[in-house]
Amino acid sequence: MDDGLMEKVVSLCKRRGFVYPGSEIYGGLANTWDYGPMGVELKKNIQDAWWDFFVKKRLDMVGLDAAILMNPKVWEASGHVDSFNDAMVDCKDCKARFRADHLIEDAVPGIKVEGLEPKDLDKLIKTNKIKCPKCGSVNFTEARVFNLLFQTFIGPVAKDSEPVFLRGELAQSMFVDFKQILETSRKKIPFGIAQVGKCFRNEITPGNFIFRTIEFDLMEFEYFIKEEEWEKTFDYWLDEMKKWLDVVGIDSKKTRIREHGKEELSHYSKRTVDIEFETPFGWKELYGLAYRTDFDLKNHQEKTGKDMGYFDPETNSKFIPHVIEPTFGLTRSVLMVLLSAYDEENVKDADGNEETRVILRLNKNIAPFKVAVLPLMNKLVDNAKEVWEKLAPNFSTDFDTTGSIGKRYRRQDEIGTPYCVTFDFDSLEDGSVTVRDRDTMEQDRIKIDELADYLAEKLS
Length: 460
Ligand code: GAP
What we know:
Layout: H1 5-15, E1 19-21, E2 33-35, H2 37-56, E3 61-63, H3 72-77, H4 80-83, E4 85-90, E5 97-99, H5 100-107, H6 118-127, E6 144-147, E7 150-153, E8 163-166, H7 171-176, H8 178-185, E9 191-200, E10 215-225, H9 230-248, E11 255-259, E12 271-279, E13 282-293, H10 295-304, E14 310-312, E15 317-319, E16 322-329, H11 330-341, E17 342-348, E18 354-360, E19 371-375, H12 381-391, E20 397-399, H13 405-415, E21 419-423, H14 425-430, E22 432-437, E23 443-447, H15 448-459
Parallel strand pairs: 3-9, 19-20, 19-21
Antiparallel strand pairs: 1-2, 4-5, 4-6, 7-8, 9-10, 10-16, 11-12, 12-13, 13-16, 14-15, 17-18, 21-22, 22-23
Helix pairs in contact: 2-11, 5-6
The structure holds glycyl-adenosine-5'-phosphate (GAP).
């Protein structure tokens, strides 16, 4: 099944309106992608399921939607201006630019490069005689460090303006607003602040479709605790993150937990694990879980002089809370959901010829459409529309009239619609429709009056 899986998923995404290359008619812009009509629904459904699972259904979680642009001093205090870096090398012959660690890891499978200094990366490139993946040359510049923060300017004239950064992670606004949220929500520790939104990173290396992009959506929360509770809270959230994989339909058999070595830890973290996914281009980070200690709140208190302490009414004492941070790439989730859901099977068409049926076996809760209503013939469009009108207020429902019924079934299979409802000539007589199941292709004849209840039960 993995044979050409990535190419098949990318092609399906373009063909069926999930994801297109960004600004394609102008030749594109590297590592940018647009989410089309199906992609925007899928992404939003994943986001809503996440918010439901981690925020709405819990009493110990509140939300935030902060500004993307923040005072640049935030990023100095957080350590991102100094430490949010990648070492890059350029091919002197074809001018292609690569992240030095990725170049080495791709050429020497299994090698450990985390935390190495640029000069050590240079040595590894030379001793392993690593070639440029584009032109085959071994002629590289020395590794140079680039900051990943995306800089822009406020005001019409760049040279007279203050530079600001597009946020590289969501976390900082949760720390900066911590005291206001604490006071207005009246939450007691332990509790979390959750946020979903766009982040930006000056990624230079190729991205494997939507895996690594320069702008991406992140879903993450900061969970504020007493220091002594960090280990048990860390384990608790790791378990919840594993449960989430099932909620969203990411194949947990293709995931593994990877502990970060000491040299690899981010500047703010005392312990980090990644949930990795086995993609067609190797094991890759899907989500992260970090113990950020009191690093961020303490830094913001020091830099601003504002009190970030929490008063514990049980012990009558004050302390700076420690933080466990589960973080989930939303756009990365979209990719792993698609890679998990893509399936093919051989079936016979109406004339008995073998053909390949492509199916997106998406979890029903995140499928862009839950139901599609299909009039068998054009003459039945008005009658079928009445069925659509009955379903549309309760379910996200497509109405598809073009092509043979077989072609319409295939189209709905490819976008992952769990149920197709066909209105045929018998429906005029018996007030019933045929409901076809995406996964089994089994068909049930159901009274139109009972259809909404039938689907509600199937989709629950
Ligand atoms: N606040 C912690 C933080 O941002 P991170 O590991 O740098 O941690 C979090 O990023 C998650 O964001 C990753 O686990 C991944 O899912 C996603 N992510 C990171 N860089 C990305 C990129 N360039 N494109 C798409 N998703 C990305």
